[in-house]
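Input sequence (110 aa), recorded before submission:
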Amino acid sequence: MQQASYEVGFEAEDIPLMIEAIPLNADCIVLIITKVEDPEELDTIGFYEYTEDQMALVEWADKFPEEMPEEALWIYIDKTDDRTRTFRIESSTLSRDELVAIGGSYVVGN
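Predicted structure, token format:
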């Protein structure tokens, strides 16, 4: 969190680790949310500060879908069997053609 604070510029308080922030660059951060069960806790851990002005890749976002921005791009990884995974992408704001351009026809829902 300290590295993310330095590189991205948010204020971090002494809070229990419930969010791991991994900066990819100045405009994009990966957020791994753990130990959070109530959407109200997202404000406590600074979630909205992380996601306000930059792209955020949020692991476990499906725990709080109502808190994700409308323009969210959802990426699903489904286990087909012990050795195979299927990737799907969905969006409420992007067209099917735009999704195909991002991930290819094999990851856009049938």
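Checked by second reader. DSSP finds four helices and five strands in the chain.
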